[in-house]
Specification:
Layout: H1 6-9, H2 36-50, H3 54-67, H4 72-79, H5 86-98, H6 105-119, H7 122-135, H8 140-152, H9 156-169, H10 174-186, H11 192-205, H12 210-222, H13 226-239, H14 243-255, H15 259-272, H16 276-292, H17 296-308, H18 317-337, H19 341-361, H20 367-386, H21 389-403, H22 413-425, H23 429-438, H24 445-457, H25 461-472, H26 485-494
Helix pairs in contact: 2-3, 3-4, 4-5, 6-7, 7-8, 8-9, 9-10, 10-11, 10-12, 11-12, 12-13, 12-14, 13-14, 14-15, 14-16, 15-16, 16-17, 17-18, 18-19, 19-20, 20-21, 20-22, 21-22, 22-23, 22-24, 23-24, 24-25, 25-26
């Protein structure tokens, strides 16, 4: 499926709040370890996972389980880290299951939430998130966990209420302010005034942490105040606690107004990177700068340059395969939009082989099925780009059948988005609108643009203009945005 910014649609399974001296919050999660050192490492690690320092969090968690080899909650958190390879995730998850007999009741809720993530069972996730609040009614952590469950199912009002409940339980619970800032920035109904207030409240609680300067910068960027956002990212860099994050955020802001400067900032991020995964990411983002300039061949050349030096990053074999899959996804998407369909098809075929091989290594029974569904979705997208709308619809019918039994209200979002696109481009714009609006999660910026086209073709010009204006000033730099921003700007210019 189309990738989306992590902070926008992917919510990490998280478990506890921090109490590590970085702010005045006193909230802690009642973990079962008897080691105060392991507990402190655990609390600090969770904080780090929320401020884009998963690498440091992982180091601390591994130290925690070295101190207490039976620390099941630490293994639950370890298994949720996005920087893991498939085999690492399985290893930590299996260990958490092995230690489940000695978890306390609160940790058992967290484990059930983690299991529900593996099973894609939203009903189980909501049940256990609510149970955690029942067990810990005065604990801000429990309310935040429930907020994340609501967020992941696009129940935005419920998410905001739970986040505010977390703040009510602990006024210094800084990450709840951060969550609300992001929600009011990206989720309907959007309210930039509230978003900026919560972001600045978070910054007032912890002025010395780069992440919270970045948070304010993100809200400014969403309001199309790009120079002000870039300045705030420079403030984050001066704070000095995460120069990699601060530099690449500035790069994303400059991508929209000064691509050459953006590439300099991405180079700075590479210099400030703390690990190979961070070093490689800015190379992808430099691809985006060229795509935003409509320099598609230069963008592809940058991608091939990245591919050719993949061995230089020192990745494990598993991690290198994951990166190669990502490169092929980028190649597919570029070539599908430049009309080079044979090259796009070849890239997609290679990606399918790699992704299935990775999935087969996982102990998660759903892994292969999820991968097959994702590839079927991509193949449907390619059919649409080629103009084979009937072929796309046949594949999408299979996709719908494949995911129909999942306990997830968003299970048909991918189906409806592509059906909307297929109907729009085959001349059935009103049916296209119906499909686009049936998606539970309306946050995908790529399909938001096509929804605008569908409204325009259906005669609802005012709605279309509203959508095009939003897409044109979205300003958050993901691959799929590179192919719709300029088109949206053109639509806005038409008036």
């Amino acid at each position: 499926m189309i990738r989306t910014p992590k902070f926008f649609f992917v919510i990490t399974i998280a478990l506890v709040l921090f109490s590590c001296g970085r702010n005045s919050s006193k909230t802690e999660f009642p973990v079962s370890t008897e080691s105060e050192d392991a507990k402190a490492l655990f609390n600090e690690a969770y904080y780090l996972t929320q401020i884009f320092k998963e690498d440091e969090a992982k180091t601390k968690l591994l130290k925690a389980v070295e101190i207490d080899k039976g620390f099941g909650a630490a293994y639950i958190l370890l298994s949720s880290l996005g920087i893991n390879t498939v085999s690492e995730t399985d290893k930590y998850y299996d260990k958490a299951i092995e230690l489940s007999f000695q978890l306390n009741d609160y940790e058992k809720c967290l484990l059930e939430i983690r299991i529900s993530g593996r099973d894609n069972d939203v009903i189980k996730r909501l049940k256990n998130s609510k149970k955690l609040v029942e067990l810990l009614p005065n604990n801000a952590i429990a309310h935040q966990r429930l907020a994340w469950t609501y967020w992941g199912t696009a129940k935005i009002e419920e998410m905001r209420k739970s986040s505010k409940d977390a703040i009510q339980k602990d006024k210094k619970y800084v990450m709840a302010y951060s969550d609300l800032a992001n929600s009011y920035t990206f989720n309907d109904p959007i309210d930039y005034e509230k978003a900026e207030k919560y972001a600045r409240d978070a910054l007032s609680i912890n002025k010395n942490e780069s992440f919270f300067h970045v948070l304010v910068g993100d809200v400014l960027r969403a309001q199309n105040k790009l120079q002000n956002a870039a300045k705030k990212y420079d403030d984050a860099y001066e704070a000095g606690t995460n120069n990699y994050l601060s530099a690449h955020k500035a790069g994303h802001a400059y991508t929209m107004i000064d691509p050459p400067e953006a590439r300099k900032r991405f180079d700075q991020a590479t210099n400030d990177a703390r690990n190979p995964g961070q070093k490689i990411a800015p190379e992808y983002w430099k691809v985006y700068t060229y795509l935003h300039e409509n320099e598609f061949q230069k963008g592809h050349n940058q991608l091939i340059k990245l591919k050719n030096k993949l061995d230089s990053y020192g990745f494990s074999d598993d991690k290198k395969e994951e990166e190669l899959s990502d490169i092929l996804w980028h190649e597919y998407f570029i070539k599908a939009h430049t009309g080079e369909f044979d090259v796009a098809k070849t890239a997609l075929k290679k990606k399918k082989e790699i992704d299935l091989a990775i999935a087969r290594k996982s102990k998660n029974d759903r892994s292969v099925q999820n991968t097959e569904s994702s590839i079927l979705w991509m193949e449907s997208h390619l059919d649409i780009m080629k103009g084979d709308y009937d072929g796309a619809k046949k594949k999408l019918s299979r996709l719908k059948e494949t995911v129909s039994n999942e306990n997830n209200p968003q299970k048909l979002d991918g189906y409806h988005r592509l059906m909307g696109m297929a109907n729009l481009m085959s001349g059935n714009s009103e049916i296209g609108v119906e499909h686009f609006e049936k998606a539970v999660n309306q946050g995908n910026i790529y399909f938001t643009y096509f929804k605008g086209l569908a409204y325009k073709a259906s005669g609802n010009v005012d709605k279309a203009k509203e959508i095009f204006q939003y897409v044109a000033t979205f300003n958050f730099n993901v691959l799929v945005y590179t192919f719709v921003r300029n088109r949206a700007l053109e639509e806005v210019a038409k008036g």
